[in-house]
Amino acid sequence: MALSDFMVTLADRTMTWVYEKSNGRIGSRLGKMGMLVLHTTGRKSGEKRSHTLQYMPDGDNYVVVASNGGQDRNPGWYHNILSDPHVHIQIGSRQLTALATVAEPEAYSQLWPRLIAQNSVWETYSRRTTRKIPVVILKPLG
Question: Which GO molecular-function terms appear in the entry (predicted)?
Answer without folding.
Answer: coenzyme F420 binding; oxidoreductase activity
